[in-house]
């Protein structure tokens, strides 16, 4: 049991996920990398974008709040230094969990060749057609419906990739992930990833739907038990004050990860407020827990106050040999679990109101 819970904690803290984003020059790879990390192209840490090839070598872009999740912007297939036939070796394919091949128009012969190489090396590959919003807008000017435009693009993609099966192609726009096929892409990725990698993916993605938020919520609730059991194990050690200090650090770190994963940080909410033209940030700041996490320095104080009485009892218990250690472990487990669940539930409630205000389905 203890080993299983330690594995769960490690899953939250240490599991790495490396996603390779490849495709022809100018396909929108960098914008996709930025969107999945919930960054604008002009934000600090964003992958540079441009009309000419801006990616000259495999470049890692860590997630801004989950640094173990990395997106890699790969050079265009067929560029001067990355020929298609040697591409997999040149980019060190073995370092990546899966590949996403991106195109803003037709998928080309190099894309099919690369996909075959990826499959030969036992890696999963997914096709993403970007800039769909532009295509829809242009066709609507001609009187063509959105549904008809999407079907035409799908048919063209399947025709261009017919030698591969053809594989599913996901139509997206990096400027608004909740539109079109991004949710279907995420569902497909989750089905094909092992549990630990899947949880890392779920926690790292922007909140683009109620279903996405619910998945994050359930992932964090599962991890609460693991952190609480770890807290109990530490409390059994006969060192006065150690358990409380560790609990404060673990709880603060856990709730901060939840806060960012739920999209409740100022930068994410400012972008959303501007997009939907509603005062979402002001509403969120009505939560005392959200304010404490945003201010950082006050979060530890808030957690310490919540743990106060239990910490005193734990300290007294450890002076009673054996039985006292067991009692201290039980008190720490129950208290830590209670504080974490209260915090996760409050953050989820706030995030749910954000979705309702933004009218995200």
From TrEMBL:
Molecular function in Gene Ontology: GTP binding; hydrolase activity
Keyword match Isomerase: no
InterPro entries: G_IRG_dom, Immunity-related_GTPase-like, IRG, P-loop_NTPase
Gene3D superfamilies, per the entry: P-loop containing nucleotide triphosphate hydrolases
Keyword Iron-sulfur recorded: no
GO cellular component: membrane
Keyword list, A-Z: GTP-binding, Hydrolase, Nucleotide-binding
Domain IRG-type G: from-to ranges: 15-192
Pfam entry (one): IIGP
Domain of life: Eukaryota
Family indicated by similarity: Belongs to the TRAFAC class dynamin-like GTPase superfamily. IRG family.
Listed name of the protein: Interferon-inducible GTPase 5-like
Protein source organism: Clupea harengus
Gene that this sequence comes from: LOC105894332
